[in-house]
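Technical note accompanying the year-one report. For the benefit of new consortium partners, we illustrate the data format agreed upon in the data management plan: each record pairs a sequence with a structure-token string. No post-processing was applied to the example shown here.
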Amino acid sequence: MEAGAGRLVGKVAVVTGAATGIGEAIARRFLAEGARVLAVDRPGEGLAAVYEGVSGSHCLECDVTDADAPERLVGEVVSRFGGLDILVNNAGIAPSAPFEELTDELWDRTLDVNLRSLFRISRRAVAAMKQRGGGRIINLGSVMSEIGGPGLAAYGASKHAVAGLSKCMAVDLGPLRITVNYLEPGVIVTNMTRPFLEAPGFREHWEQKAPVGRLGQPADVAACALFLALDEAAFVTGYGLRVDGGALANF
């Protein structure tokens, strides 16, 4: 998929967690394809500097777990751009702790960011998408939507739940011409994964597991998000698109 073809001209998108990594890559890919994008991230993440001077973008500093986040986010995009066609629920955290040391606070925070905020923002977005005659909701799962891993009980639980929620949303929202899919990135080189990549042997293990012979880049995930956002993907819903270089196929 080459950028610049304008395949999202006339579309309005919201991308959460858009200051860095996968979220930034998705937002920039959508912008390159002609979409207008509301980029959302927490205060203190340098969001405005990332999109300074980028045509078609607008920034909103907002913690997706705030009680008023869904109303603020959808209200802002409708006010600024006149509607909402595409929602990418990308904001997430990946804390690590051995199961017996996993606190209630860390469990609650992980589920709050990775799952509850996704549910609440999506629910509010539906009304705006109905006004446009349909839409696309793209949730960020993970290969951890399918497998387990050491020290990742809260993260894995949240990502398994994203998969299940996305499938149920697809069933409920299909009659409204709103598709709901989720991406399953493998090991992608971002700020979030850097602590894992610095662990002895981690990078080498996943490079060897991926038949393509490398780790993923945010642009790899953005290309798949673009596909799911297109009008041509109208018959794809309730689907988890694995973006892992074939790593899970090689277990």
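Partners are asked to follow this layout when depositing records. The chain has one domain: 12-190+218-242.
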